[in-house]
Amino acid sequence: MRIFETHAHLDFPDFDKDREQIITASQKEGVEYIVNIGVGKESCEKSVLLANKHEQIYAAVGFHPHNAAEYNEKLIRKLARNEKVVAIGEIGLDYYRMRNTKKTQLETFEKQIALAQELKLPIVIHDRDAHQDCLKILDKYNPTKLVFHCYTGDVLFAQEVLARGWNISFTGIITFKNSHLPDIVRMVPADRYFVETDSPYLSPVPKRGRRNSPLHLRYTIEKLAEIRGITPKMVAAQTFKNAADFFLEKQNS
Fold it and tell me: Is the pLDDT of residue 253 over 60?
């Protein structure tokens, strides 16, 4: 299988001891591309360095809502000029942990959407317990290339996302026993979904409780295939094409 890992945090300290080994092993297991996602100043810088070092790794740069107060537009503009930067993200709103005020999150989110539009880059969205505020801001700018990463919303919100032409990305959460996501997996059009690990977080069953990595992406693919009634190879091929069209359009043009 050719696999496209659309959301990993390989720059995080969790991988300091074996980062290169994980990258090499993932490639041998069919993970052809990885998008490493920035969440703040240091993470964005490290993501770009990692992408420059490895041909199969690309980077997204942005300030996560937890880091909204530290937003540095000058830095993001500078990093986004790098040819290996393929998206602005992860950006958005998080009303679950509330490490920044709603006002700060909303202001930073809006600035980054406007920047992504200006730079003509896709957007990777983090949305936790903030669906309606996310939609309100996004509808103001009406971006065309956007993915809700680690989707955990309900069917009604998925319908809102899909109606706007946007994409949904699934993690190992779909393998969890009481996950509500199978209904959403079944309804998403074939050309509108991605797969990701969000590693080092959210390891799928049977690796739950351990550090996640792109090596575990096949378990999510297998579960998606089971739910959609197709083969894992078909899921891998479809999500690979979807992600390549989304993230690598300029590189392949």
Answer: no
Q: How confident is the model at residue 26 (pLDDT cuts 50, 70, 90)?
A: very high
- Judge contact between 32 and 56, C-beta under 8 A: yes
Q: Residue 120's domain is classified under what CATH number?
A: 3.20.20.140
Say how many domains are in the chain. Answer: 1
How many residues would you count in the chain? Answer: 253
- Parent domain of 174: 3-252
β-sheet with 3-8: strand ranges across: 3-8, 31-37, 57-61, 85-94, 123-128, 146-148, 167-170, 193-195
Mean pLDDT within 86-113: 97
How is residue 15 written in tokens?
């991988």
- Four-point Cα dihedral 131, 135, 138, 139, nearest 10: 180
pLDDT at 249: 84
pLDDT in tens, 234-250: 999 999 999 999 999 86
Please name the residue that has the structure tokens 């069919």: 30
pTM of the predicted model as reported, rounded to 2 decimal places: 0.97
Listing DSSP states for 43-93 in one string gives: HHHHHHHHHHH-TTEEEEE---GGGGGG--HHHHHHHHTSTTEEEEEEEEE
pLDDT tens figures, 161-210: 999 999 999 999 999 999 999 999 999 999 999 999 999 999 999 999 99
Q: Which of 112, 189, 125 is nearest to 152 (CA)?
A: 125
Q: Are 62 and 44 in contact (CB under 8 A)?
A: yes
Two tokens, residue 198: 């969000």
What is the CA 159 to chain-centroid distance, rounded? 19
